[in-house]
User: What shape does this take?
Amino acid sequence: MNGFFGTPGAATQRSARRSARKSGPRAPTPGSPADLTPEADPHEVARAIVLRQLSMAPRSRHQLHTKLRERGVSEEVAAGILDRYEEVQLIDDAEFARMYVRSRAQTRSLARSAIKRELAEKGITGELAEDALLQRTDEDERSAAEDLVRRKARPLADPGDRASRDKQVRRLVAMLGRKGYAPSLAFSIVKDVLDQQE
Assistant: This one.
């Protein structure tokens, strides 16, 4: 993803790996697997992992819990650290969900159904997800889809060529479908936009 929820590009990652090779061995990064040594304080290790994750991008509690489990942090320690960070509002699933909905709607023109699936993958379900999705109205969705179709529609060499128009309709409806729009709504939007362009 790009923007607020983005990750470094491949070129940046390759550059970082080259720099690491040139500089030789380095001390373990806080929160790295190398920190999980017998003498390491598990609470300090867990805190370092969580803070490092949050410094890179917003995360849900579920995402942070998954990362802690991957790094071998016990369930008891993970729960204690995550509970504490929720108390001080460094972890806030409701705010995370609201930001995520705004970001994915603005940068990817996703329909609510698609965003809802992505939120579920991040552990945001039920009331939290529904409340966040209330930010997007039917009108917002339709407007975003219309703008997207206008940008992606290609001028036809012969506007009267029915086969070419039908092919374009199928392509644009499929594009909206991949973004979570229902087939009937996608077809209606595409037809309206193409009719306006003729």
Remarks:
- The CA atoms of residues 50 and 64 lie 6 Å apart.
- The mean pLDDT is 85.
- The chain is about 65% helix and 0% strand.
- The first helix runs from residue 10 to 23.
